Amino acid sequence: MKAVVLSLVAALAMTSAAAAQHAGHGDVPAPKAAPAAVEGVGVVKSVDAKAGAITLAHEPIKALNWPAMTMPFKVSDKALLEKAAVGSKIRFQLSGQTIVGIRAF
Q1: Each residue's pLDDT tens digit, 41-87
Q2: Which DSSP symbol is given to 66?
Q3: Residues 88/41, Cβ–Cβ less than 8 Å
Q4: CB of 72 within 8 A of CB of 51?
Q5: Contact call for residues 79 and 102 (beta carbons, < 8 A)
Q6: Both ends of the chain: CA-CA distance in Å?
Q7: DSSP E strand stretches across 1-105
Q8: Does residue 5 contact residue 13 with C-beta atoms inside 8 Å?
Q9: What is the rounded distance in angstroms from the CA atom of residue 2 to the CA atom of residue 72?
Q10: What is the longest distance spanned by two Cα atoms in the chain?
Q11: Which residue from 25, 18, 60 is spatially nearest to 39, judged by alpha carbons?
Q12: Which has the closest alpha carbon to 34: 104, 93, 103?
């Protein structure tokens, strides 16, 4: 009888330890906050509405540690391109390397 009781106590101890060890495994991590859009200023060099792209000569973007340069960007919505005429100076918001917002400077 003593052996049976000791076996049950040992089994319960192992079960509790295993349960504690696995606590939280089923938890879903909290979603990460979306990175804030970064703003830049640039002059529109070209617009390719069909490809949903714009080429800008932009000023330095300190938040990304980018120097001033001319480069193409995709836009998240082709309707944004209606706000960008070649030769105009604009403010733009980037999420990653995609333009998600454009407004007149």
Answers
A1: 999 999 999 999 999 999 999 999 999 999 999 999 999 999 999 99
A2: B
A3: no
A4: no
A5: no
A6: 87
A7: 38-48, 53-58, 69-75, 89-95, 98-104
A8: no
A9: 79
A10: 92
A11: 60
A12: 93
| Encoded tokens for 30 | 């909290």
Q: What token pair was written down for 63?
A: 């938040």
Reported pTM: 0.66
In the block, which residue shows the tokens 């504690």?
20
What pLDDT digit, counting tens, does each position of 2-45 carry?
665 556 556 666 655 555 555 555 555 555 555 578 999 999 99
Amino acid at 28: V
Distance, in Å, from the CA atom of 58 to the CA atom of 66, rounded to the nearest integer, reads 10
Nearest to 76 by CA among 92, 56, 58: 92
Please report the domains of the chain, with CATH numbers, ordered by start residue: 38-104 (2.40.50.320)
